[in-house]
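Amino Acid Chain and Its Fold in Token Form
===========================================
Purpose: to set a sequence beside its fold so the mapping can be learned.
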Amino acid sequence: MKRIAIVILNWNGRKMMQRFLPSVLEHSAEAEIIVADNASTDDSLSWLEREHPQLRRIVLDRNYGFAEGYNKALRQVDSEFYLLLNSDVEVTSGWLAPLLAYMDAHPEVAACQPKLRCEWQRDSFEYAGAAGGFIDALGYPYCRGRLMSHVETDCGQYDEPMSVMWATGASLLIRSKDYWDAGGLDACFFAHQEEIDLCWRLRSRGRGVACVPQSVVFHLGGGTLPKDNPRKTFLNFRNNLLLLYKNLPEARLRRVMRIRFWLDALASLQFFLTGQWGSCRAVWRARRAFRRMKPDFEADRRENLRRTVLTPVPEQSTFSLLWQFYFKRKKVWSDLP
């Protein structure tokens, strides 16, 4: 048995796999490579059987989304490490060695990510993960190398390994024991920000999360849902509220939720004024969905708070990212407080 299993969750992604899977096969000799299929309706499975019959395939009976799709697939994988890898990621020579070496040298770390660069603008960081993720005081995620919509050029400025708040699900290496001890990805999220929720649970319980920039991959991004898709807006706003409710300490929760109501209203107004009416409506649908789902998360919240040993989590910022970005004009991570 190889100590690391790369699991690619696929849904109607034959074209993505055709483009990016060869790099994974070429540069990942240390790993078992598995494709878990979320009940694709394209020719993904027949293409895999024809072009890569040596690869193990896990076929799920329906589309469970990113979170539960991975949970169901990983229950069938026996390995010391899981590497969750998007189908639209191009890996590079030697990419696994720095990740595994870092994890071996830091047993207190549960999960890490490589440095993510943009596949179509290869000298820039990639929006979804860049060089490791953080969360501001009001729950907005950002990255070392990406604040809001501003993405930095990679000039080696973030090449030191660093403890972070969350590692991107586009390329996430995690110890299988930690994955299941924390409960895995939350199936109710379906997709978007579920890896942030998982990493928040890990950090609050004293386990580490890191970025190891000596490993570099290129991520296309937006392969399943474009950035301006109302469905994506809905999932991001709903899941961010769930994320806060599940993980914020009681002393901060009410204040943060009051402020977020007005900020979400402002975001909805911005969508309206820019003609993105589907996303405008999605913000309010997300808030209604959160209110309906909130009672179902009370037990999770109690469990998370009970198991918390770090309050606050060191990598959660005490400032407002919106204030720093829009009013103080801080556009790069290194300029933040």
Notes: The chain has a mean pLDDT of 95. The longest helix spans residues 250-273. Residues 234 and 285 are 7 Å apart (CA to CA).
